[in-house]
UniProtKB/TrEMBL annotation:
The keyword Lyase applies. This is Uu.00g000270.m01.CDS01. GO terms for biological process: secondary metabolic process. Residues 111-378 form the Amidohydrolase-related domain. It comes from Anthostomella pinea. The lineage of its organism: Eukaryota, Fungi, Dikarya, Ascomycota, Pezizomycotina. One of its GO terms (cellular component) is cytosol. PANTHER family: 2-AMINO-3-CARBOXYLMUCONATE-6-SEMIALDEHYDE DECARBOXYLASE (PTHR21240), ISO-OROTATE DECARBOXYLASE (EUROFUNG) (PTHR21240:SF28). Keywords: Decarboxylase, Lyase. One of its GO terms (molecular function) is carboxy-lyase activity. Belongs to the metallo-dependent hydrolases superfamily. Pfam families: Amidohydro_2.
C-alpha cells in the first residue's frame, strides 16, 4: 500500500550505536575496530575477505601503508547528529535506521539476548529523540537459545518506532531455509514486522582470485559477493517452501534483491526442468512461482545506482509499488569531497529513480517515500 505522501524516506541507512562500537573495539578478530599509527580515523575490519590484507599489515609490523585494511570509522557511524545532518543535506524526511552488518552474529550465545535488548533499546531511544523522523529495524539475537530469540521478538514488538528486523543470511547457522527458523518467521509475520534482508558474508574469498586482496580493493565482494549472497539466500528459502509456510512473511531485500530480478526467470526454468523437483511434486502447476513470491511477499530497496538495474527491479515486482528508496549511509562516503556535503549514494540512487520512472512522476514519488510510509506504517502511533 502506497500513500499519497511526497515525503522522501531512506529505508536502507545504518547506525553503529556507541555501545556497539565499544564492543567492536574490544575485539581482536574480524569484525573489529582498530587504530593504526598515522591514520586519522580508526579502521573497521568487517568482511571475511579482508583477512588477507590484515594479515599482511600485521606480518609487516607496520601500518604506514596507504593501503590500510577496512574502512575509516567516521563520525557518521554512530552520531545521531550526523545522521540528521545527512538527512537534512539530502532532503530526506524520514530514515528507517538499522544496525549494520554483521549485527550480533558474532556474539556469544549467553550474551546475545541482553546485547540485542540494549542495542534495540538504544535504537528506540534515538528514534524517540527525533519523533516522526526516525523509525528502526531491530536486531535479533540469532546465536541465543530459541526461547531468548522469541522473547526478543516480544520485546521489539512493544517498541513504538520499530517496524521490523534487519537480518543477515546465516540464520541460526544453517541459512534461512532452516526449518528451525519457521517459528521465528511466523512470530515476525504475526507482529507485522518486516524482515530487511541484508548480506554480509558474500562468497568464499577464493572466487575473487589471487590478485584481489592486493589490487581490487573491496569492489568484488561488495559489488558482486553481497548481491549473490542475497540471491542465494532467497532462492533457498523459496525452494524450501518458506514463503508458502509463512504467507504473512514480508521481506525487504537489500540492493534491489541482489540479482533476483534478473535471474528469476532462470530459476523458474531450472525448477520446471529439474527431474527431482518434478517427481517430488514440487514443480507442479499449483506452485506459486518465484515471480508470484516477488509480487506478493517481497519488497526491494532501490539501492542499485542505475536506471537499468532499477527497471529490472520494478518489472520483477510487477510495478513500482514494491520498491523503496535507500542510501546505505554511512557506507560509501565521498572520497574526494567534503563528507558533510552531498553523497553520490543519494544522488545516483535518486537519479536512477527519476530515469526509470520519470522525474517528479507518481511512480517516482512512491519509490522515494510513498511506498515506505504505507508499507512500514511510518506514522508515529501505528
Ligand atoms: O563497505 C562495506 O563493507 C559495506 C558493508 O559492510 N555493509 C554495507 O551495508 N555497505 C557497505
Amino acid at each position: 500500500m502506497a500513500t499519497s505522501t511526497s515525503k522522501v524516506v531512506d529505508i536502507h541507512t545504518h547506525m553503529y550505536p556507541p555501545a556497539y562500537v565499544e564492543l567492536l573495539e574490544s575485539r581482536k578478530s574480524i569484525p573489529f575496530i582498530r587504530r593504526f599509527d598515522g591514520a586519522k580515523d580508526p579502521r573497521y575490519i568487517i568482511l571475511p575477505s579482508e583477512a588477507e590484507s590484515l594479515d599482511k599489515i600485521t606480518a609487516a609490523g607496520s601500518s604506514a601503508s596507504a593501503n590500510l585494511p577496512g574502512r575509516p570509522v567516521t563520525s557518521h557511524y554512530s552520531s545521531l547528529a550526523q545522521k540528521l545532518h545527512f538527512m537534512d543535506t539530502h532532503g530526506i524526511d524520514i530514515s528507517v535506521i538499522s544496525l549494520a552488518n554483521p549485527w550480533l552474529d558474532f556474539v556469544a550465545s549467553e550474551e546475545a539476548g541482553e546485547t540485542a535488548k540494549s542495542v534495540n533499546q538504544e535504537f528506540s531511544n534515538m528514534c524517540a529523540s527525533s519523533p516522526g523522523r526516525l523509525f528502526f529495524f531491530a536486531t535479533l539475537p540469532l546465536t541465543a537459545p530459541p526461547e531468548t530469540l522469541l522473547a526478543a521478538i516480544g520485546h521489539i514488538r512493544g517498541l513504538r518506532y520499530c517496524r521490523g528486523v534487519i537480518l543477515g543470511t546465516s540464520g541460526l547457522g544453517k541459512g534461512l531455509d532452516d526449518g528451525a527458523l519457521v517459528p521465528v518467521f511466523r512470530a515476525l509475520a504475526a507482529n507485522r514486522l518486516t524482515i530487511f534482508l541484508h548480506p554480509h558474508y558474500g562468497l568464499p574469498s577464493e572466487v575473487w582470485g589471487p590478485r584481489a586482496s592486493a589490487e581490487y580493493g573491496h569492489v568484488l565482494p561488495l559489488a558482486l559477493g553481497f548481491p549473490m549472497e542475497t540471491t542465494i539466500a532467497v532462492a533457498r528459502m523459496y525452494l524450501a517452501g518458506v514463503f508458502d509456510a509463512v504467507p504473512g512473511l514480508r521481506m525487504l531485500l537489500a540492493h534491489s534483491g541482489g540479482t533476483l530480478p534478473f535471474l528469476a526467470g532462470r530459476i523458474e526454468s531450472c525448477i520446471v526442468h529439474d527431474g527431482h523437483l518434478v517427481c517430488s511434486g514440487k514443480a507442479g502447476p499449483a506452485r506459486r512461482t518465484v515471480w508470484d513470491v516477488l509480487r506478493e511477499q517481497i519488497y526491494l530497496d532501490a539501492v542499485i545506482y542505475s536506471g537499468v538495474g532499477l527497471r529490472a527491479a520494478i518489472d520483477a515486482g510487477g510495478g513500482e509499488d514494491r520498491l523503496m528508496f535507500g542510501t546505505d549511509h554511512p557506507f560509501f562516503p565521498p572520497l574526494n569531497s567534503d563528507e558533510q556535503g552531498e553523497w553520490e549514494s543519494m544522488t545516483w540512487n535518486a537519479t536512477a529513480v527519476s530515469k526509470a520512472l520519470g522525474d517528479g512522476s507518481e511512480g517516482a514519488r512512491k519509490v522515494m517515500g510513498g511506498n515506505a510510509v504505507g508499507v512500514l506504517r511510518l506514522w508515529e502511533d501505528s
